[in-house]
Structures are given as structure tokens and as C-alpha cells.
Design goal:
By secondary structure, the chain is an alpha/beta fold. The chain is built from 10 helices and 14 strands. The relative contact order is 0.12.
């Protein structure tokens, strides 16, 4: 792209910040931020996509800018859409507002919405794409992954001691991580469309899987769908905290499971069993969630479920909270993932490390393991 003006770079950084405000509220739509600059390069209006079905970021920013948008520049984190759904096409709104230039970060990969850049250019508007594309894509990684792979983005989160234990030998686990780490984990929940646990976690912890963020009221948080993978329909009992009605719940059971006792307590989805081993078919589970407009998943299940997801190649990012403690015995953070020798180890690329109180948070993404001849 042509060299962007300093004001456009500053505006794009601001648009990326604005887009992040929509995390956890816009699914199945992306998070998008927009800054409108007037003809002199001064900020005239800002906006972000606040909720699915509501006005897109460009509409909010144009409304804020008013007549100052005419002859100005729209800086957007995602290529303006060119289709009519629950809202009209943003490309046409930009044209109608008299915008003279549009700068966007990431091209829209959604075949039903793409084409906005071409429509804008054909209307005589100067269009540039790719400004701060990596930064903008990182903020939209869940939605982009879901569109490109046709399944929800999966983030596996766990807390463990330095020797990789998630509980002591007697099963006690509260609290391995610090209050700072637990608060950070709740922010991950708030940004996800669904949080998943397995039957082992449901039995051992009776988790509520709610979201609590200091400074935010309950009505400011969109709680994620709570999903329990309960193959045999024998882990979730009437009165379980996950059935408390404070957030939607879905229980995934095997097609042949006797789940009569769950009727009327929570929606149930029946899925085929995994072709090999225990549990349910994870591709079928992810497809069922995708069909329910889930685009991002926070996997909080125990070692068995985590191992199954890793074995299926269905983990896109890992966030581990490591506490400076040693247990020596107790359940390990990861169960059988189909790895039997060191050459099969799933290698990770560490993208971030941070101190949270006494703990260390490590963020990593799986990378392709090189073949022996490539070393």
C-alpha cells in the first residue's frame, strides 16, 4: 500500500482499541472499530460494532462525525461490508456520507460480506488496505479463524503448578493460581462465545462457569454459553451449578445415552461417539456449536478433554497460568493426546509472557513440527 499519513496510523491504532470493546458481544459477527477523520485529518467521529444485529462500526462513526465526514477519511479495522443482512451495507453508507478515502486493515474473508473495497473504488473513493493488518487481525483472530476453518476458534486455558499439576494427590485444587490470574481468566471467559468443560470437571468441581469482572455489572457482560461434554449423561445432576439459569447452558451427550433426567433442565445436543477411544466426536461438537453461532470457545476442561482436543488438532491457542508451587503428585495438566514419542511432541510458539501477581502467564500457539530431514 502507499505510505499512510501519520494521522491514519494513529487513527488505525485507535480503531483497533475501539474494536476490542466489542469482544464477547458481537458473535457471530467480527469485532470492528472505525475512526472518521475530517478533510483536515482531524478526528471527527469514532465507533465500534457493539452487538450482533446492531449498527456496524462505520455507522456509529459516521453518525458521530456528521457533516464533517464529507471529504474525509474512514479508517476501519476490517474491509467495509457490501451486503445487506440485519443491517445495510457499510460501503454504501460511506459513499452516501461523502467519504473521500477509506483505509482498512484486513480484507473481509467472508464470501457473503466481501467486496466492499471494490464497491468503494468503483464509486470513485480512494481505497487502501493492509494498514496495521497484523495488529488488527490479532484482535479478530477468533472470528477470522472461524470463517477460514468453518469451526469455532478454540483457546485452551489451564492453571498449574510449575511441575504441571492441576490438583494435589487428594484432589484439592483451590487455589493453585493467584487472584490476579483468576481475574484474568474471567476476562477470557467474557471474550468467548462458549466455555467448555468435561464430565470429570463437572463431577469434581461442580463449576458455575459464570463471569465476574471487577467494575462491571452483570448487565454489562454477555455471559458465554456454558457447555458440558457429558458423554454418558451421568455427570450433570439436577441442582448442578451450571444449571442455575444465570447463563445459557448446553449439555452434549452421546446419541445412545439415557438423558431423560436432563429433559427440561437444559438444552441437550446428541452427538456421535468418537470413532476411537472415549468421549464424543469433537468435530461434531464444534460443528454443533458453530451452527449455534459460536465462533470462539474457551476450553476449560480437565486433562482428558484437553488431550482429546489436542489429539484432534482442534486447539488454536494455549494460555497457561503457572503458579510458583510444587506438588510432586496429583493429576497432570494434560492427558493422553495421542503422543507416544518425543518426535511427535506438539511444539508451541510462545507469543506472550506476563507476570500476574506471583504467577507467570504464558500464551502460545501450536506450530507445525518440522520433519527430521528439515532440522
Amino acid at each position: 500500500m502507499a505510505t499512510p499519513a501519520p494521522a491514519e496510523i494513529t487513527a488505525m491504532r485507535r480503531a483497533i482499541e475501539l474494536a476490542a470493546r466489542g469482544l464477547g458481544h458481537t458473535s457471530p459477527n467480527p469485532v470492528v472499530g472505525c475512526v472518521v477523520l475530517d478533510a483536515a485529518g482531524r478526528t471527527a467521529g469514532e465507533g465500534w460494532h457493539r452487538r450482533a444485529g446492531g449498527p456496524h462500526a462505520e455507522i456509529h462513526a459516521l453518525r458521530a462525525a456528521g457533516e464533517r465526514a464529507r471529504g474525509g477519511t474512514a479508517v476501519v479495522t476490517l474491509e467495509p461490508c457490501d451486503h445487506t443482512g440485519r443491517t445495510g451495507p457499510c460501503a454504501q453508507a460511506l459513499i452516501d456520507a461523502g467519504i473521500a478515502r477509506v483505509v482498512y486493515a484486513v480484507s473481509d474473508p467472508n464470501p457473503t460480506a466481501t467486496g466492499g473495497a471494490l464497491t468503494l473504488a468503483e464509486a470513485g473513493i480512494d481505497v487502501e488496505g493492509g494498514l496495521l493488518a497484523d495488529e488488527a487481525a490479532a484482535g479478530n483472530e477468533a472470528w477470522l479463524t472461524a470463517v477460514l476453518r468453518g469451526r469455532p476458534f478454540v483457546l485452551w486455558k489451564y492453571a498449574a503448578t510449575l511441575d504441571g499439576r492441576i490438583a494435589a494427590a487428594d484432589g484439592t485444587s483451590r487455589w493453585i493460581s493467584s487472584p490476579e490470574s483468576r481475574a484474568d481468566a474471567h476476562r477470557l471467559r467474557a471474550a468467548a462465545d462458549a466455555v467448555i468443560v468435561g464430565s470429570g470437571t463437572a463431577r469434581a468441581d461442580d463449576p458455575q462457569l459464570g463471569v465476574r469482572i471487577a467494575g462491571l455489572a452483570d448487565d454489562e457482560i454477555t455471559p458465554p454459553l456454558r457447555v458440558v461434554v457429558d458423554s454418558g449423561a451421568d455427570a450433570v445432576k439436577p441442582g448442578a451449578r451450571v444449571l442455575d439459569g444465570t447463563a445459557p447452558t448446553l449439555i452434549a451427550v452421546a446419541e445412545d445415552a439415557d438423558a431423560g433426567h436432563l429433559e427440561g433442565l437444559a438444552p441437550i445436543v446428541r452427538l456421535p461417539r468418537a470413532p476411537q477411544g472415549r468421549g464424543l466426536s469433537l468435530p461434531a461438537l464444534l460443528q454443533a456449536l458453530y451452527d449455534r453461532d459460536v465462533r470462539s470457545v474457551l476450553l476449560e476442561g480437565g486433562p482428558t478433554l484437553a488431550g482429546a482436543f489436542l489429539a484432534a488438532g482442534a486447539v488454536d491457542k494455549v494460555v497457561g497460568y503457572l503458579a510458583p508451587a510444587l506438588l510432586g503428585a496429583g493429576p497432570a495438566v494434560l492427558g493422553d493426546a495421542g503422543i507416544t514419542t518425543i518426535t511427535q511432541a506438539l511444539r508451541l510458539d510462545v507469543t506472550d509472557t506476563a507476570r500476574l501477581g506471583p504467577d507467570l502467564r504464558i500464551t502460545a500457539v501450536p506450530v507445525r513440527t518440522a520433519r527430521p530431514e528439515e532440522n
